[in-house]
Specification:
Number of helices: 13
Keywords: Metal-binding, Zinc, Zinc-finger
Structural class: alpha+beta
Protein name: PHD finger protein MALE STERILITY 1-like ubiquitin-like domain-containing protein
GO molecular function: zinc ion binding
Radius of gyration: 26 Å
Bound molecules: zinc ion
Organism: Aquilegia coerulea
Shape: globular
Amino acid sequence: MALKIQEKNNKQNLKIYDFKNFSGPSFPITYSFRQNIRSFIQENAQECCTDEEGVKIWITCLENNGVKIPLYTIEESIQHSYKPYCRICSYTGWSVHLVSKRRYRLIIPNSDKWDKQLPSVVDLDNDSTYLLHGVIHCNGFGHLLCISGNQEKGSKHLCGYEVMDLWDRLCTNLGTRSISVKDMSNIKGAGTMSLGLLYGVANGQSRFAKWNYRFHNGAYGLDLKRFEAAIRTLGAINLNEVVENMAIKDNSDSRKINVLIGKYRLWNRVNMITLRDLLKFMISLLKAATDRHANLEASNYSLDRLLSASEDVNSVRHDIAYLCEHVSRSYLKKPAFVILRNNYFVKEWKIKDEGDKVLKFMCPVRLFLSPTYYGDRLISKLPQSLELGELVVLPLNATIGDLKVAAENCYRDTYFVMGTFQVTGVEGLNHLEDGVLVREHMKSGGQLWLQGTEIQHTVRFLYQGFQLVNCICGAKAQDGQKMQECDICHYWMHRRCKSEKYRYLSICKNCA
Ligand SMILES: [Zn+2]
Ligand SMILES: [Zn+2]
Ligand SMILES: [Zn+2]
């Protein structure tokens, strides 16, 4: 079923915003994402018609160099969702986040689809050509799923970094708390080496580092230390050594690699010693050829020579893919491929304290979960607190009673299982009457632990990920790799990490 997108008002009445400066609503005070996204929809977007239950769609019209670009905001109610849980939250290590009531998608379709209807929500995830596709849960945690169709060059109307800049401005202005992005592979044929890693090897940091995204977690318990070590190892590979090794192998692939290395060495006026040098140069060629704003004079090679050699973007891309595929295959052991392809980068936004205008508190909660059953199995290892907290914003003259009501409303509006949640106390302030002013006892910007009533402990819609992971490799959360449950301790482990001792039983190495 295709969605019927029809602007309620005539398209002529649609307000148009400048793409390069657009950052959503201008707030006198910033609240939490949950509240800010509503202001954004009210102030900057126009509702579209849809007949899907639990789905609302708005459109914002942005203009760049005379071209009109649609930005869609889609609100999905989790209660009606075909996919209430978020796998990417689990992969990012956020599986113990409670399921949020709503999630918002921000989408700019590829330019060839600007005049067409958006597909139904069920089909939104099947398209990987979006110029922008981000999803943010109403608790302010979200994921950047696709940027520029995962193409570095973007589209003919927008550069990749222009879209990324827009996304970053929107996230900041909407009070987003954390966004994760998978180190996305976009080079056809470069199956063993993602673009993210390629950037890591070439520049010592991720493609998203410019926007302050930092390595967060990888598959098989990969941590920052091991990630950086792998990047260093690959980057430091000596090109002369590669050439020698390939000459010894002397097959069609190795001969091709040596021709390729020779070709780029000839083009670059600077002597290249390591794989990092070579990849850096190749990326600079790619960038110069695709980036309209590149300052060609500043680079240290001659574009004329490149053009006369009829080199184009695609052949550089192809060369990078080919080189990465074969060099990393020769220099990394197989498991390293898997590890290096599944990394998540995360950007966190800190609360902006506006203590002269409002009081802001981060309020985590001690949960009271009664024993929960999953099928016929007792789940006893669920966390007993919501350390994540929620941002509660209060007027300067708010009382402790006001704080409790505001925190209650905040949790009720955010999480599915907390619809009837009640705050029974505030740790450290419990000796005070409800009528006492909060600011006399607590400075704005601080943290206040709440105590509350038992939450609706249904398994349905409780946590984003339900599998509790404790694998021998160090993984403490799902990471997109195949997993199975240990029959003894009931923790989940990677299939690859299970004990070999009992081939036909599912038993982890800790229990074996
Ligand atoms: Zn998620
Ligand atoms: Zn494992
Ligand atoms: Zn076990």
